[in-house]
Amino acid sequence: MKKFILFTYLTIFYSAVIVNAQARKEIVIATKNVSVILTIGANNRVYQSYLGKRFVNQDDDRLIPGGKHEAYITGGMEDLLQPAIRLTHSDGNPSLELQYVSHDAKNLDDNVSETNILLQDPKYPVQVILHYQAFNKEDIIKSWTEIRNNEKGEITLDDYASSMLHFEAKDYWLTQFHGDWASEMKMQESKLTSGVKEIDSKLGTRADMYQTPVFFLALNKPADETTGELIAGTLAWTGNFKFHFEIDERNALRVISGINPYASAYKLKKGETFITPAFIFTYSTTGKGEASRNLHKWARNYGVLDGNKPRLTLLNNWEATHVNFDEKELVNLFDDATKLGTDLFLLDDGWFGNKYPRNNDKAGLGDWQENKSKLPNGIGYLVKQAEAKGLKFGIWLEPEMVNPKSELYEQHPDWILKLSNRNENYQRNQLVLDLTNPKVADYVYHVVVDMLVKNPGLAYIKWDCNRSMTNAWSPYLKDRQSALYVDYTLSLYKILDRIRQKYPHLPIMLCSGGGGRTDYGALKYFTEFWPSDDTDPLERLYIQWGYSNFFPALTISSHVTSWGKQSIKFRTDVAMMDKLGYDIKVSKMTDEEVKFSKQAVKNYNRLNNTIWFGDLYRIVSPYEENRMVVMYVNEEKSKAVLFNYNLNTRYKEVLNRVRLQGLDSHKQYKVEETNLVPGTKSNLAENGHVFSGDYLMTMGLNLTPGKLIPLTSMVIEISAAN
Ligand code: DGJ
């Protein structure tokens, strides 16, 4: 019976190949300005014929010659370089051929269209669907792949990329973003040479600690902020990822993006389907700035939870107290938050554990009960006290982790990832829970949800994850260990899905020992992320510059702290560039500093609409000059905010006038320096005057009037006067 169904199915399937292949030659995936054109060859394979600027005249799409590069190259056939997909069939055959069967394209709404291309191996009932979503006004294409095993037995996926793209340019310039704890997102650009370059992660959890899953690829020559042809790409995946760049013998480049297949051969039983994460990319002919703005718009509309809604300003207690606090001290800190005027108080690490109190990072993780001596009246009491002072209250959790010194570890030693015949390997004295085990996943879900049910006033969560996977072995997966890295991340998403079903809009910060998790796979569940534990504003400028290339300002949490020794104004101006918050002992601040900060929060509340939802123009890079200048312009071009930071500027260093960007040439704008220290006056010659957008974008402003002082800054509000 089963055989019959399969036979009938294949017959229908093969006739579809013939009919459709004859009827249609090219498949166009297009946004407002970008198009990808795929063509079907005489051999029934699908080729990428074009990726670039959309033609003014769409009839020109048909003139594109058939492609040379197969859109999703398979392993084990005639191509000799890295394939997008490689699998082993149930009979042991390690080859795959994918032929076009059919495709459909539909509009999901008036902005998003989806194209799905069904491919099948002519010899084996393995199907692959290439999915493309085109976001018209954001110029973003999201692509992913679905792999179906209709064979009688199990197949093994050895490589299973989300996307493969081909380029034929003279030269290729890759910009990658790498770092470490407290030095995330260092930007590095290099020319690709013949052969292979890979950017990847094998860290499992905290996967982005060394490399972030984002890149720019400029074609022919390096791109800058306003010129150059490039794509910007990112993988929406919170686990191991890999970008593979390979230049072949004819100088063509293939870019393969997806889950890192390292130690991750994935088995699919009969009837099972694997869906890869999405690769999200944009293409720009006007430099990196445009690419970033496309990504920001897409992220706010589609990629980040509540990306078009306001964020809460908060006071966090991590840098102020670490784990050393008690109820009384916290309640006093609430007064600090009200002094500053923030919306919320965020209680960080250290509030839990009784048998093994969390008095340092050696104990307590996993035991999510309030520590009775620190918080005798529980979280509920703190929520009420905060509310009485007009504040919301949020809490820190690290639900995927466990300290060996914990009751959770004692009760469930089999819930932990570790090789039983090796010594336990600790990072920050902790181990990773085995999320592939449904019981553990349920436990993690309940850690979060039970806390929210018990304390309905809780208004915010910071979800931390402070270590990578080493010694990675799942007691639950037994002989399916190579599924660990993938299934862990899929399980994390299922937990987050369940939490979001119950709490669809609760703001949650994504944190991973600083910026160890910053990707659009996670961000659809989170409202913001913690980019780095390094809050020294000078360092932060480089870090925030880095993240701004791929993530919108309202997702990048930036706190004023005491880490840097710069003035409160400089520290605040740096934090105001993104999502402002505080993590500071207000009692240690001078009256003047408190007065300035209170006013700064008010200023931020006035400007935040433009910062969060406006278009970002990165005008002067800290990598190129001894200063950094960025500005945000709202959609109507009626309001802009410019941030200017002098770095370690030198005596008599020459810094030229700065041309503004993004304004309306025909509008008149009033230029006003804001966020000044009380009692000081602006040095800006243009302060208080009105200029046309054209003048400001042509003549610009002298942003370093008077004496050049290192580590000083300026915030300028630019408002349309007509
Ligand atoms: C790492 C985070 O990045 C910090 O902000 C803080 O929450 C600590 N973890 C707490 O352990």
Report what the structure shows.
The protein has 722 residues and is of the alpha+beta class. Among the domains are: 300 residues, Beta-galactosidase, Chain A, domain 5 (Distorted Sandwich), CATH 2.70.98.60; 104 residues, Sandwich (Immunoglobulin-like). Helix content is 23%, strand content 30%. It has 13 helices and 37 strands. The strands form 8 sheets. Strands 6, 7, 8, 9, 12, 13, 15, 16, 20 and 21 form a 10-stranded antiparallel sheet that branches. β1 and β2 form a beta hairpin. The longest helix has 23 residues. The chain is globular, with a radius of gyration of 27 Å. The N terminus is likely disordered. (2R,3S,4R,5S)-2-(hydroxymethyl)piperidine-3,4,5-triol binds next to loops.
In short, what is this structure?
By secondary structure, the protein is α+β, with helices and mostly antiparallel strands. Helix content is 23%, strand content 30%. The chain contains 13 helices and 37 strands.
